[in-house]
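Field reference: sequence -> structure
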Amino acid sequence: MASAVTFIGFGEAGLAFAAAGARGYDRKLDDPSLRAAKLSDFDAGYVTACDSAKAALDGARMVLSLVTADQALPAARSAAPLLAAGALWLDMNSVAPGTKQGAAAAIGPVGRYVDVAVMAPVHPLGLAVPLLVSGPHAEAGAEALATAGFTHVRIVGSRVGDASAIKMIRSVLVKGMEALSAECALAAEAAGVRAEVIASLEASWAGADWERRFDYNLERMMVHGERRAAEMREVVRTLDDLGTGSAMSRATACRQQDIGERHLVASEGLAAKLAALLPAAPLESAA
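Structure field:
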Protein backbone atom coordinates (compact mmCIF):
# COMPACT_ATOMS: atom_id res chain seq x y z
CA MET A 1 0.00 0.00 0.00
CA ALA A 2 2.80 2.43 0.87
CA SER A 3 4.05 2.36 -2.74
CA ALA A 4 0.69 3.73 -3.90
CA VAL A 5 0.44 6.63 -1.44
CA THR A 6 0.06 10.02 -3.11
CA PHE A 7 0.22 13.44 -1.47
CA ILE A 8 -1.95 16.33 -2.59
CA GLY A 9 -0.26 19.23 -0.85
CA PHE A 10 3.28 18.82 0.44
CA GLY A 11 4.13 21.19 3.26
CA GLU A 12 5.11 20.58 6.88
CA ALA A 13 2.77 17.61 7.29
CA GLY A 14 3.84 16.11 3.97
CA LEU A 15 7.47 16.21 5.03
CA ALA A 16 6.57 14.68 8.39
CA PHE A 17 4.71 11.84 6.66
CA ALA A 18 7.12 11.47 3.74
CA ALA A 19 8.16 7.96 4.74
CA ALA A 20 4.63 6.79 3.89
CA GLY A 21 4.57 8.28 0.39
CA ALA A 22 5.88 7.74 -3.08
CA ARG A 23 4.76 10.75 -5.10
CA GLY A 24 2.80 13.95 -4.80
CA TYR A 25 1.74 17.29 -6.15
CA ASP A 26 1.64 20.76 -4.59
CA ARG A 27 0.22 23.78 -6.38
CA LYS A 28 3.32 25.79 -5.41
CA LEU A 29 5.08 23.79 -8.14
CA ASP A 30 3.07 25.88 -10.62
CA ASP A 31 4.58 29.15 -9.34
CA PRO A 32 8.04 29.82 -10.84
CA SER A 33 9.02 31.84 -7.77
CA LEU A 34 8.17 28.97 -5.39
CA ARG A 35 8.91 25.92 -7.52
CA ALA A 36 12.58 25.44 -6.59
CA ALA A 37 11.89 25.57 -2.85
CA LYS A 38 9.00 23.13 -3.18
CA LEU A 39 11.05 20.73 -5.28
CA SER A 40 13.65 20.87 -2.50
CA ASP A 41 10.94 19.80 -0.02
CA PHE A 42 10.05 16.81 -2.18
CA ASP A 43 13.73 15.88 -2.52
CA ALA A 44 14.23 16.15 1.24
CA GLY A 45 11.36 13.70 1.77
CA TYR A 46 12.47 11.35 -1.02
CA VAL A 47 9.05 11.78 -2.60
CA THR A 48 8.65 12.12 -6.37
CA ALA A 49 7.22 15.50 -7.37
CA CYS A 50 4.59 15.44 -10.12
CA ASP A 51 3.94 18.46 -12.31
CA SER A 52 0.17 18.16 -12.06
CA ALA A 53 -2.53 16.70 -9.85
CA LYS A 54 -3.54 14.54 -12.79
CA ALA A 55 -0.09 12.95 -12.97
CA ALA A 56 0.05 12.43 -9.22
CA LEU A 57 -3.40 10.86 -9.04
CA ASP A 58 -3.04 8.59 -12.05
CA GLY A 59 -3.69 5.11 -10.70
CA ALA A 60 -3.34 6.21 -7.06
CA ARG A 61 -5.15 3.96 -4.58
CA MET A 62 -4.53 6.03 -1.42
CA VAL A 63 -4.36 9.82 -1.38
CA LEU A 64 -3.48 12.03 1.60
CA SER A 65 -5.00 15.49 1.23
CA LEU A 66 -2.72 17.88 3.12
CA VAL A 67 -3.55 21.31 1.72
CA THR A 68 -4.33 24.60 3.47
CA ALA A 69 -7.71 24.86 5.17
CA ASP A 70 -9.16 27.12 2.47
CA GLN A 71 -8.15 24.62 -0.23
CA ALA A 72 -9.54 21.43 1.36
CA LEU A 73 -12.87 21.58 -0.49
CA PRO A 74 -11.52 22.92 -3.82
CA ALA A 75 -8.81 20.23 -3.80
CA ALA A 76 -11.41 17.48 -3.37
CA ARG A 77 -13.61 18.90 -6.10
CA SER A 78 -10.77 19.26 -8.59
CA ALA A 79 -9.33 15.83 -7.79
CA ALA A 80 -12.59 13.87 -7.97
CA PRO A 81 -12.66 13.52 -11.79
CA LEU A 82 -9.03 12.37 -11.74
CA LEU A 83 -9.39 9.62 -9.14
CA ALA A 84 -9.30 5.92 -9.88
CA ALA A 85 -12.54 4.15 -9.00
CA GLY A 86 -12.55 3.16 -5.34
CA ALA A 87 -9.45 5.16 -4.42
CA LEU A 88 -9.20 6.25 -0.80
CA TRP A 89 -9.22 10.03 -0.26
CA LEU A 90 -7.94 10.63 3.27
CA ASP A 91 -8.80 14.24 4.13
CA MET A 92 -6.31 15.19 6.86
CA ASN A 93 -7.02 18.93 6.75
CA SER A 94 -8.05 20.93 9.82
CA VAL A 95 -11.49 22.05 8.67
CA ALA A 96 -15.09 22.07 9.90
CA PRO A 97 -17.32 18.99 9.64
CA GLY A 98 -19.43 20.85 7.10
CA THR A 99 -16.38 21.45 4.91
CA LYS A 100 -15.47 17.78 5.06
CA GLN A 101 -19.02 16.75 4.26
CA GLY A 102 -18.85 18.93 1.16
CA ALA A 103 -15.57 17.31 0.18
CA ALA A 104 -17.06 13.85 0.78
CA ALA A 105 -19.95 14.69 -1.54
CA ALA A 106 -17.43 15.57 -4.27
CA ILE A 107 -15.30 12.43 -3.81
CA GLY A 108 -18.14 10.00 -3.14
CA PRO A 109 -19.30 9.25 -6.68
CA VAL A 110 -15.82 7.95 -7.59
CA GLY A 111 -13.68 7.29 -4.53
CA ARG A 112 -13.94 6.45 -0.84
CA TYR A 113 -13.73 9.49 1.40
CA VAL A 114 -12.30 9.27 4.94
CA ASP A 115 -12.41 12.07 7.52
CA VAL A 116 -9.02 12.14 9.29
CA ALA A 117 -8.14 14.44 12.19
CA VAL A 118 -4.48 15.00 13.09
CA MET A 119 -4.50 15.43 16.87
CA ALA A 120 -0.97 16.66 17.67
CA PRO A 121 1.88 18.57 16.01
CA VAL A 122 3.31 16.46 13.18
CA HIS A 123 6.88 17.19 14.28
CA PRO A 124 8.62 15.35 15.80
CA LEU A 125 6.06 12.52 15.88
CA GLY A 126 5.78 11.93 12.14
CA LEU A 127 3.96 8.66 11.45
CA ALA A 128 3.42 8.22 15.21
CA VAL A 129 1.12 11.26 15.41
CA PRO A 130 -2.33 10.39 16.79
CA LEU A 131 -4.99 10.20 14.07
CA LEU A 132 -8.77 9.97 14.44
CA VAL A 133 -10.77 8.64 11.49
CA SER A 134 -14.48 8.55 10.77
CA GLY A 135 -17.00 8.02 8.00
CA PRO A 136 -18.52 5.07 6.14
CA HIS A 137 -15.06 4.03 4.91
CA ALA A 138 -13.28 4.61 8.23
CA GLU A 139 -12.26 0.97 8.66
CA ALA A 140 -10.70 0.78 5.20
CA GLY A 141 -8.99 4.12 5.82
CA ALA A 142 -7.60 3.03 9.17
CA GLU A 143 -6.24 -0.19 7.68
CA ALA A 144 -4.61 1.69 4.81
CA LEU A 145 -3.02 4.21 7.17
CA ALA A 146 -1.63 1.42 9.32
CA THR A 147 -0.23 -0.33 6.25
CA ALA A 148 1.41 2.94 5.20
CA GLY A 149 3.21 3.11 8.54
CA PHE A 150 0.98 5.25 10.77
CA THR A 151 1.03 3.75 14.26
CA HIS A 152 -1.67 5.57 16.25
CA VAL A 153 -4.94 5.42 14.31
CA ARG A 154 -8.33 5.23 16.00
CA ILE A 155 -11.83 5.04 14.51
CA VAL A 156 -14.23 7.44 16.27
CA GLY A 157 -17.44 7.30 14.26
CA SER A 158 -19.29 6.20 11.16
CA ARG A 159 -20.16 9.71 9.99
CA VAL A 160 -18.00 12.10 7.97
CA GLY A 161 -17.50 14.96 10.41
CA ASP A 162 -17.16 12.96 13.63
CA ALA A 163 -13.35 13.07 13.60
CA SER A 164 -13.16 16.69 12.47
CA ALA A 165 -15.72 17.78 15.10
CA ILE A 166 -13.45 16.42 17.84
CA LYS A 167 -10.47 18.24 16.33
CA MET A 168 -12.32 21.54 15.87
CA ILE A 169 -13.93 21.60 19.31
CA ARG A 170 -10.63 20.68 20.98
CA SER A 171 -9.00 23.60 19.17
CA VAL A 172 -11.38 26.02 20.90
CA LEU A 173 -9.36 25.41 24.05
CA VAL A 174 -5.90 24.58 22.67
CA LYS A 175 -5.58 27.52 20.28
CA GLY A 176 -7.65 29.72 22.59
CA MET A 177 -5.21 29.14 25.44
CA GLU A 178 -2.37 30.09 23.11
CA ALA A 179 -4.08 33.36 22.25
CA LEU A 180 -4.93 34.16 25.87
CA SER A 181 -1.39 33.40 27.02
CA ALA A 182 0.01 35.66 24.31
CA GLU A 183 -2.31 38.49 25.34
CA CYS A 184 -1.38 38.02 28.99
CA ALA A 185 2.38 37.85 28.40
CA LEU A 186 2.47 40.85 26.08
CA ALA A 187 0.48 42.99 28.51
CA ALA A 188 2.61 41.90 31.46
CA GLU A 189 5.80 42.75 29.57
CA ALA A 190 4.46 46.13 28.42
CA ALA A 191 3.50 46.98 32.00
CA GLY A 192 6.88 45.88 33.34
CA VAL A 193 5.35 43.30 35.68
CA ARG A 194 6.02 40.02 33.82
CA ALA A 195 7.89 38.36 36.70
CA GLU A 196 5.14 39.16 39.18
CA VAL A 197 2.37 37.98 36.87
CA ILE A 198 4.17 34.69 36.26
CA ALA A 199 4.77 34.26 40.00
CA SER A 200 1.08 34.84 40.66
CA LEU A 201 0.07 32.30 38.04
CA GLU A 202 2.52 29.78 39.47
CA ALA A 203 0.96 30.28 42.90
CA SER A 204 -2.48 29.48 41.47
CA TRP A 205 -1.33 26.58 39.23
CA ALA A 206 1.66 25.06 41.00
CA GLY A 207 4.07 23.31 38.65
CA ALA A 208 2.49 24.69 35.47
CA ASP A 209 5.74 26.45 34.48
CA TRP A 210 4.10 29.51 32.95
CA GLU A 211 7.36 30.96 31.69
CA ARG A 212 7.84 27.86 29.53
CA ARG A 213 4.19 27.81 28.47
CA PHE A 214 4.23 31.45 27.41
CA ASP A 215 7.43 30.84 25.47
CA TYR A 216 6.14 27.71 23.72
CA ASN A 217 2.75 29.21 22.87
CA LEU A 218 4.28 32.36 21.43
CA GLU A 219 6.65 30.27 19.32
CA ARG A 220 3.74 28.26 17.89
CA MET A 221 1.85 31.46 17.05
CA MET A 222 4.84 33.24 15.52
CA VAL A 223 5.68 30.28 13.30
CA HIS A 224 2.21 28.90 12.55
CA GLY A 225 -0.18 31.73 13.47
CA GLU A 226 -1.59 32.26 9.99
CA ARG A 227 -2.32 28.57 9.54
CA ARG A 228 -3.79 28.38 13.04
CA ALA A 229 -6.00 31.38 12.27
CA ALA A 230 -7.32 29.59 9.18
CA GLU A 231 -8.10 26.56 11.34
CA MET A 232 -9.85 28.76 13.90
CA ARG A 233 -12.06 30.22 11.19
CA GLU A 234 -13.13 26.64 10.49
CA VAL A 235 -13.70 26.24 14.23
CA VAL A 236 -15.98 29.28 14.10
CA ARG A 237 -17.91 27.65 11.27
CA THR A 238 -18.22 24.47 13.33
CA LEU A 239 -19.56 26.31 16.36
CA ASP A 240 -21.91 28.45 14.30
CA ASP A 241 -23.30 25.32 12.63
CA LEU A 242 -23.87 23.86 16.11
CA GLY A 243 -25.46 27.10 17.30
CA THR A 244 -23.42 27.19 20.52
CA GLY A 245 -21.71 30.55 20.03
CA SER A 246 -18.27 31.39 18.68
CA ALA A 247 -17.26 34.77 20.12
CA MET A 248 -14.14 33.49 21.87
CA SER A 249 -12.98 31.50 18.86
CA ARG A 250 -13.44 34.51 16.57
CA ALA A 251 -11.15 36.48 18.88
CA THR A 252 -8.65 33.60 18.90
CA ALA A 253 -8.54 33.62 15.10
CA CYS A 254 -7.86 37.37 15.14
CA ARG A 255 -5.03 37.10 17.68
CA GLN A 256 -3.42 34.14 15.90
CA GLN A 257 -3.58 36.01 12.57
CA ASP A 258 -2.16 39.21 14.07
CA ILE A 259 0.94 37.48 15.39
CA GLY A 260 1.46 35.00 12.58
CA GLU A 261 1.25 37.50 9.74
CA ARG A 262 4.17 39.49 11.14
CA HIS A 263 6.50 36.68 9.97
CA LEU A 264 8.89 37.27 12.84
CA VAL A 265 11.69 34.87 13.73
CA ALA A 266 10.85 32.99 16.92
CA SER A 267 14.04 33.82 18.82
CA GLU A 268 15.22 31.72 21.75
CA GLY A 269 13.56 32.56 25.07
CA LEU A 270 10.40 34.36 26.13
CA ALA A 271 12.06 37.76 26.62
CA ALA A 272 13.39 37.77 23.05
CA LYS A 273 9.99 36.86 21.61
CA LEU A 274 8.23 39.57 23.58
CA ALA A 275 10.85 42.12 22.54
CA ALA A 276 10.29 41.22 18.90
CA LEU A 277 6.53 41.55 19.18
CA LEU A 278 6.10 44.65 21.32
CA PRO A 279 7.72 47.28 19.02
CA ALA A 280 5.16 46.42 16.33
CA ALA A 281 1.90 48.26 15.91
CA PRO A 282 -0.71 47.52 18.61
CA LEU A 283 -2.53 44.27 18.05
CA GLU A 284 -5.81 44.67 16.22
CA SER A 285 -8.87 44.41 18.39
CA ALA A 286 -11.13 41.40 17.85
CA ALA A 287 -14.18 43.62 18.24
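Note: Residues 2-159 form a domain with the Rossmann fold fold (CATH 3.40.50.720).
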